[in-house]
Design goal:
The complex is a heterodimer of chains A (339) and B (332). Helices cover 73% and strands 0% of the residues of chain A. Chain A has 339 residues and is an all-alpha fold. By secondary structure, chain B is mostly helical. Chain B is built from 13 helices and no strands. In chain B, α2 crosses α3 (52-85), α3 (52-85) crosses α11 and α4 crosses α10 (233-255). Classes of the chains: A mainly alpha (339), B mainly alpha (332). Chains A and B meet through α6 and α13 of A and α5, α6 and α13 of B.
Chain lengths: 339, 332
């Protein structure tokens, strides 16, 4: 008879679950804090009475803030999760939406769509998802012949393409006078423009994409093997890659539509999670989601409280938070290669 | 050096000087207000006349062209020197974080000391740029970063400084309007007095870098080979490194960061010229390209001209792809 507690897999699973639970608890605490703090502070009693259904004067503020924070949480998390999937597909730890041109091409396509066809949430969403898929494919196909020899080239090309795409976006926004002012947040990633509609869309997309990502994670370890090995054990590699890629672009594209250019969260979240849980897909996905959401919520909280009543776009504060972390990740990356 | 290459560089210099002249003239003529050739000529011949057109051309349009020529040639040469010195084909002052560091210093100076004199400002900003370069270099060494890795570290630095700049802008909106235009990589916002300040150190640097660059190809040797040939490579390298960074920071403190410019121009020139000739050709090409970019921004939107840097960004991606494919064969 096996002793349950000494079984190594169960022990590891137990450790993973503790880490995930700890992360989730911190995230919830942060979420509640960010609901309370702001230009107008709200007491816990008001929050409680809102939840229990008693109406007070601060309801409207609270409602706005809940929408905003929910968007921040879901989008930050979805970007983290999406990049974790992308990194698995490409077997390259330095892949992230903003480093492979996904973000800026998606923003560009959304702005072009709004400029030529018209503004509608559904169109924005479709173009965002399509754009992020196209942006990644451009960068990947340009460098795919050298993937095994020159991993970072993908990132370099991605960065240069995103600079170019951002420049074009800027040109169009300038040309459109004031009609497209609401898309200005694309350039710096603000939650200021969040409306109920975007929140609803983001929640729907999250409800579709996150469970499918978790289902996918059961089969995901196959992708870590090299091509020959996975084919010889009979895994449907191409199909799996295709499905993973579409889920990743769904996750990333829909969050780009809501928050624009969110900076280095995409690269930081999966890499930090990897330090805690290693390469186990399910745990990695969950923790990436939690860390991405955590960074973006913190960034938004800092951005809107530090210079009230004005606010710094969350994308900018997120970059300031995430840049040192990114340097640390690069440090580990090159150390690992060197030794 | 044989006669043939001499011949080539002379032809190149003549053609590019002609191009610079033509582009400058067009830049003077075209803009939010179009002037006739007569008005332009009149203004240039009698710069102290009290006519509206003359004052406009001399005070606002002439500085743009002069800054364009200075900045274009200076940044291109600085990029060329850096590429040789660090043996990194992707080296560029903007990708080492130097330019954004300088811009951040300029903004902080204006915030803390609004009445600061321009020469002091340029000195403080330059020291900020040099500090960032040292920091980045040490970091890259400690990390054992590869060629593209160094670029990535620079990108992270750039993003960090850029975000800091944006945050300051938003936090202090009243003071930032004027500065914003100053640091967006546009040639506007510089005056004749700015040019008067930087022209002396600029020409000094250019002359020194021209004479130092005689042995530029020795830098591709490794240390022991250079010693065997009797080239004082360490001193040589240090002088050139300092020069190129000072050149870049000085220009950036006037016009703001111009991303990728120092990277792409040398790659136009490197296949055709070497050593001193490459320096000359680089300076010329830089000036031509920046003036051309400036002219095109005016043609695209005459009323609210974009920063010239925006157009450079569009050209950067394909060139970067070609350069990486050609030079960086193996890199993790």
């Amino acid at each position: 008879m096996l002793n349950m507690t000494s079984n190594p897999t169960i022990k590891i699973n137990y450790q993973m679950q503790t880490k995930q639970l700890f992360g989730a608890a911190t995230l919830i605490i942060l979420f509640i804090t960010s609901l309370v703090i702001g230009t107008e502070s709200i007491t816990f009693q008001q929050l409680l009475s809102y939840i229990t259904g008693h109406h007070t004067t601060s309801d409207f503020i609270l409602q706005l803030r809940i929408h905003r924070e929910a968007t921040a949480l879901l989008c930050g998390g979805m970007v983290g999760l999406g990049s974790a999937i992308l990194q698995g597909i490409t077997r390259n730890d330095m892949v992230a939406p903003d480093l492979t041109g996904m973000t800026s091409i998606a923003c560009l396509m959304v702005v072009i769509g709004a400029y030529t066809i018209g503004k509608s949430p559904a169109l924005t969403l479709i173009l965002g998802v399509l754009g992020s898929a196209i942006g990644f494919l451009i960068c990947y196909l340009l460098t795919c012949k050298r993937q095994d020899k020159n991993k970072l080239m993908l990132v370099l090309i991605g960065i240069s393409i995103s600079f170019a795409a951002n420049a074009v976006t800027q040109l169009i926004l300038l040309h459109a006078n004031n009609e497209l002012d609401e898309f200005l947040y694309f350039l710096s990633g603000s939650l200021y423009a969040t409306t109920f509609q975007t929140t609803k869309l983001v929640i729907i997309m999250a409800l579709i994409a996150i469970p499918s990502a978790l289902i996918l994670s059961k089969h995901f370890s196959v992708l870590y093997l090299d091509d020959q090995t996975s084919q010889s054990i009979g895994a449907p590699l191409r199909r799996l890659q295709f499905i993973s890629f579409s889920i990743a672009s769904l996750l990333i594209g829909s969050s780009i539509c809501a928050i624009g250019n969110m900076g280095f969260i995409g690269i930081v979240a999966p890499n930090i999670s990897r330090m805690f849980v290693g390469n186990r897909p399910t745990s990695l996905f969950i923790l990436s989601f939690i860390i991405g959401a955590f960074i973006y919520l913190t960034a938004d909280l800092i951005g809107r409280t530090i210079i009230t009543p004005a606010e710094i776009p969350a994308g900018i504060t997120a970059n300031i938070i995430a840049a040192p972390l990114f340097l640390f990740i690069l440090y580990r990356y090159f150390r690992g290669r060197h030794e | 050096m044989n006669n043939h290459t001499h011949h080539k560089i002379i032809v190149f210099v003549i053609i590019s000087s002609l191009l610079i002249l033509i582009l400058s003239a067009l830049n003077l003529k075209i803009g939010a207000i179009h002037y006739t050739w007569q008005e332009v000529l009149q203004a240039l011949l009698h710069p102290h006349a009290h006519q509206v057109n003359t004052i406009n051309i001399i005070k606002s349009k002439l500085p743009i062209i002069l800054t364009g020529i200075i900045a274009g040639s200076g940044l291109a040469i600085s990029g060329l020197l850096l590429q040789h010195l660090t043996r990194n084909p992707l080296a560029c002052p903007s990708l080492f974080g130097i330019e954004y560091a300088t811009a951040l210093c300029v903004i902080l100076c204006y915030m803390l000391m609004p009445t600061i004199a321009k020469p002091h400002l340029i000195m403080i900003a330059s020291s900020g740029g040099v500090l960032t370069f040292l920091l980045m270099f040490i970091l890259a060494k400690r990390m054992h970063a590869t060629t593209i890795g160094i670029t990535l570290i620079g990108v992270v630095f750039n993003a960090l400084y850029y975000s800091a700049i944006q945050a300051i802008m938003i936090a202090f909106p009243s003071q930032s309007q004027a500065i914003l235009y100053n640091i967006s990589g546009s040639l506007y916002g510089s005056s004749l007095s700015d040019i008067g300040i930087i022209i002396i150190p600029f020409s000094l640097f250019m002359i020194i870098s021209y004479f130092c660059s005689k042995h530029l190809s020795y830098l591709e040797l490794d240390e022991s080979q250079a010693i065997a040939l009797g080239v004082p490579i360490k001193r040589f390298r240090l002088i050139l490194l300092g020069l190129s960074i000072l050149l870049a920071t000085m220009i950036t403190s006037i016009i703001g960061p111009l991303l990728f410019f120092g990277l792409i121009i040398p790659h136009f020139v490197r296949p055709f010229f070497r050593d001193q000739q490459a320096v000359i050709a680089c300076g010329m090409t830089g000036a031509v390209v920046l003036l051309l970019a400036e002219l095109s921004t005016k043609l695209i939107s005459p009323q609210t001209p974009l920063p010239a840097g925006t157009l450079i960004l569009l050209a950067a991606a394909p060139i970067l792809i070609l350069v990486t494919k050609k030079y960086v064969k193996y890199d993790f």
